[in-house]
Amino acid sequence: MTRFSDGNSSGYRTLTRDECVTYARDVSGIQLRGDAWTWWDKAAGVYKRGQYPAMGAMLVLAKTNKLRLGHLAVVNGILGPRDISVTHANWGNGWLSRRIVYESMRVQDSSPNNDWSTVRFWNHNAGGFGSNYAVKGFIYNQREP
Q1: Is 0.70 topped by the overall pTM?
Q2: Domain, as residue range, for 67
């Protein structure tokens, strides 16, 4: 296992590729199943949902041409009004980067209205923030009554 840290992200490489949904479910305790992009609708009426980050909440990225299955990450730090830290797996654009478990990665609200509708993730290899990604919202680990 190879570890790394650059101040905006930290994690380790694994020999296998963990799926983001399995990793996020294990870390968050939110018990949903299916492709990442389906979690937002599946959480309705089961878990509380919202548009703003909270510790332990699940960040749900939308299905797009770039993210065919969407993506999930778990909030593990609130760094400021437009900055959070997440933990997640299976993130990147190649076979090697998808074998990294990020214990912490900085994520920035990049939406023009400061509403967390789009975000950018820190790119460890590039040393800066990457592309904008559409956000469905945050699923909180609180059951609906």
Answers
A1: yes
A2: 8-143
